[in-house]
């Protein structure tokens, strides 16, 4: 393991020239764009823990914000030149490549407890074939000593962005409140040994700019008059 497998400092991500980002809201679901058609991830696939295909464009709920840059990132192993920095460079041509026994781990650690709602990975079965993850475990906790598995998903020949919701079965459990998130690649397609992941982003709910308000004002004038003097 080399120092390139760890990224301790915050990253100021470069502009994203290759990833087109769009936004949409539909009953708190994330839109998936497949070619020119738009579809939502079906509840049946969520229940089965199986995600088929991928999304060409990154499409997000407007109530989400990216928290990736606030964390320290590390991986369990990496090939020289294909370290953890490749997961955060906004470049689909680069990738993290593991170099060791499964499971292959990505560790995301925050200095304070944060609310996380969504993980998004960019993987490419067409290019990476047997290096493409087929089964992923998501774990959360205060640190390495008490990580607990919260979700397992199966990927079926994914090419593009893959969305993994951290919401629980209870409708009130819309996020995970944690210091650490760990993404474990348990197996690859075609019984591959090492893995390729091209991008990872993590998102949490956007904070309400007006404390103690159940809704968010969009007008500056409304925000100005939202408190009692």
UniProtKB/TrEMBL annotation:
Any GO BP annotation: anaphase-promoting complex-dependent catabolic process
Signal peptide residue numbers: none
A cellular component term, taken from the record's GO annotations: anaphase-promoting complex
CDD domains xref list: APC10
One Pfam family named in its UniProt record: ANAPC10
Superkingdom in the source lineage: Eukaryota
InterPro entries named among the record's database cross-references: APC10/Doc1, APC_su10/DOC_dom, Galactose-bd-like_sf
PANTHER family documented for this protein: ANAPHASE-PROMOTING COMPLEX 10 (PTHR12936), ANAPHASE-PROMOTING COMPLEX SUBUNIT 10 (PTHR12936:SF0)
Family indicated by similarity: Belongs to the APC10 family.
Keyword Zinc attributed: no
TM regions (residue ranges): none
Role played: Component of the anaphase promoting complex/cyclosome (APC/C), a cell cycle-regulated E3 ubiquitin-protein ligase complex that controls progression through mitosis and the G1 phase of the cell cycle.
Keywords: Cell cycle, Cell division, Mitosis, Ubl conjugation pathway
Protein name: Anaphase-promoting complex subunit 10
Stored SMART domains: APC10
Annotated DOC domain residues: 43-229
Species of origin: Nepenthes gracilis
């Amino acid at each position: 393991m080399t120092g390139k497998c760890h990224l301790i400092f915050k990253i100021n991500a470069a502009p994203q020239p290759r990833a087109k980002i769009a936004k949409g809201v539909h009953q708190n679901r994330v839109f998936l764009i497949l070619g020119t058609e738009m579809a939502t991830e079906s509840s049946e696939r969520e229940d089965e823990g199986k995600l088929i295909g991928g999304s060409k464009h990154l499409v997000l709920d407007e109530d989400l914000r990216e928290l990736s840059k606030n964390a320290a990132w590390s991986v369990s192993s990496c090939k020289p030149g294909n370290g953890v920095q490749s997961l955060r460079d906004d470049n689909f041509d680069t990738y993290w490549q593991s170099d060791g026994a499964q499971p292959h781990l990505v560790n995301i650690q925050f200095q304070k407890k944060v609310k996380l709602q969504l993980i998004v990975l960019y993987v490419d079965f067409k290019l990476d074939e047997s290096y493409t993850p087929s089964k992923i475990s998501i774990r959360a906790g205060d640190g390495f000593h008490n990580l607990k598995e919260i979700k397992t998903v199966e990927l079926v020949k994914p090419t593009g962005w893959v969305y993994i919701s951290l919401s629980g079965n209870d409708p009130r459990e819309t996020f995970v409140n944690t210091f650490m998130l760990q993404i474990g690649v348990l197996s690859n397609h075609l019984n591959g040994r090492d893995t390729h992941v091209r991008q990872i982003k993590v998102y949490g709910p956007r904070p309400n700019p007006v404390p103690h308000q159940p809704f968010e004002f969009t007008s500056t004038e409304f925000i100005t008059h939202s408190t009692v003097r």
